[in-house]
Amino acid sequence: MASEHPLLMSDFLAESELLLASMVRSRDSLRACPSDRAAVRELSRDAHTLRGILLMVDLPALRDLAYRLEGAVGELRRDTSRSPEDALRLVDETVRALSDVLRGAATQSRSHAPARAERRGREAVSLAARPLLQTVLVVDDSRTVLRVVQRALEEAGFRVLTANTSTAAVEALAGEPPALILLDLSIAEQDAGALLRRLSQNGVFHRTPVVLFSNQPDTLLRATAKRLGAAGHLRKTGDARAIVAAVSAQLAKPARASGGP
């Protein structure tokens, strides 16, 4: 649960505040100009990002609201003649609900501040004392998601590298290749799988399994992973055991051949 981990809550608070501000700007733009397609695209991106974050923390009521908002904005994108009123109403509900959560979480986070430094110290000592397993590169544009996955894998003994852009991911691969890359699908599809093509071109993709990470439904995610040539897929979850199990299972498979995906 997010409230049990001050570092995660800190990232969640910071990221959610940015999303709130962005959603309010898009809402105001749509109220002023209902045909503003740029505002619709921005709302769609924010709703998708918010739902992905909320899959990683224990806030099911907000997650349901973000899902409804994403659906309403998706209908706006598909039907340009549709009135934005339903989407705007859901934006207002989401903003109010998220604001309430942030106020409560901020108060709780401040109350945990004295113990935060001590907790960090204990975790650092604990991780340093463990023999590290293989290295995993996690690529996601959400600080909250990166924090959850990094924590889960490090506690299981993995060495974890993180990157929040495709460029940072390629830079991270300049050194010793990781044993596995866990890649946010939204980054992978920003340019029709451009990052996967870049990995393939420099040879890393053929040596290193890439697992797509997304909040898409499992059947759709499986099909997308197959289409893009990824080694596997994992639906976003805050369940540390599920994350570790998926990574471990993928690493237990025979190494990929160097001839192609």
Automatic annotation (TrEMBL):
Keywords: Kinase, Phosphoprotein, Transferase
SUPFAM superfamilies (alphabetical): CheY-like, Histidine-containing phosphotransfer domain, HPT domain
Location of the region described as Disordered in the Swiss-Prot/TrEMBL record: 103-122
Sites bearing Phosphohistidine, chain numbering: H48
One Pfam family recorded for the sequence: Response_reg
InterPro entries: Bact_response_regulator, CheY-like_superfamily, HPT_dom_sf, Sig_transdc_His_kin_Hpt_dom, Sig_transdc_resp-reg_receiver
Domain called HPt: residue spans: 5-105
One GO BP annotation of this record: phosphorelay signal transduction system
Residue ranges of domain Response regulatory in the record: 135-251
Segment forming the signal sequence: none
4-aspartylphosphate carried by residues: D184
Example of a GO MF term: protein kinase activity
Protein name, per record: Hybrid sensor histidine kinase/response regulator
Naturally occurring in which organism (per UniProt): Polyangium fumosum
